[in-house]
Amino acid sequence: MMRYLRIFQIPAFARYFFGDTIVRLVEQCVQVALLWFLATRGHSPANLGWYVFWNTAPVIIGGPLTVKLFRYWSIRRSMVVDLVSRGLGYGMLTVVIY
To answer: Is the pTM for the entire model greater than 0.70?
Structure first.
């Protein structure tokens, strides 16, 4: 089995892979928590629908902007800015819809 996982012997890739995996798991947990919050306290199914609709904005807008940041900043700094801005966006969206 180890012969198939040689790529994890490269420290930079292993750090990226495990870091990205943890970030994605946490991001999905937050998404489920926000959906649960709006489903139980959002007062209408329309609020939940609007949240899901507007939830795509950070992906559609944030993706290309992050790529542009890569040209000016390091990848790590760009990813931190992307994650923080998405978190703030999701938080503000939840407050506005609630």
So the answer is: no
